[in-house]
Task: structure prediction
Amino acid sequence: MNKFRLPFANGNHPRSAEEKSEIIERAALAYAAYMDALGFDWRSDPNSSETPMRVAKAFVNDLADGCYSVPPKITAFDNVDKYDGVVFQGNIKMHSFCSHHHLPFIGNAHVAYIPNGNIVGLSKIPRIVDVFARRLQVQERLTDEIKDCLQDTLNPIGVAVVIEAQHLCMQMRGVEKQHSSTTTSAFSGIFISDEKTRAEFMNLIK
Ligand code: ZN
Result:
């Protein structure tokens, strides 16, 4: 699983409970310094006095938990029925953080594949979306990583992923009109080579 890009420059992938709590301690100290640098009198405000630790815990344990997790082990089942149609899961809720501003982007992922020799338990697809989404991300990379993960593990005839998301960094900063959304897509195999198959997928999304 090392081939997946991890957000640590040194290639380390800390995930033991002990490593995580060390990271939380360091991040809380750094966040306190950050609030100081911003000039906030946060220590005397009961709403803010615990904020550095709260932010660090929320980030490491929850919001960006995928930074500290490897993608779930996918149990591939034999495609005994030789099913060769599209397996589609739409409207998978996802939330992520943009690498550029550390603000959330929130939306839906639509994922499809056409099995070859293997199929996957359906609950695994949302989990794959989740582990890649809960990282510092750009939507384009997230879309590709979900596609590559399925392609590499199942070796299907093709994979299609579309993500539609609203970026708070755009909406809150007034860069774009509110409610505008960003759509990204990634395809492999037959979804690239066969226009009809791709059109079938795009129809399922509508
Ligand atoms: Zn951004």
Remarks:
- Residues 17-37 form the longest helix (21 residues).
- The beta strands are 76-78, 87-98, 104-114, 118-120, 136-137, 158-167, 182-187.
- DSSP finds seven helices and seven strands in the chain.
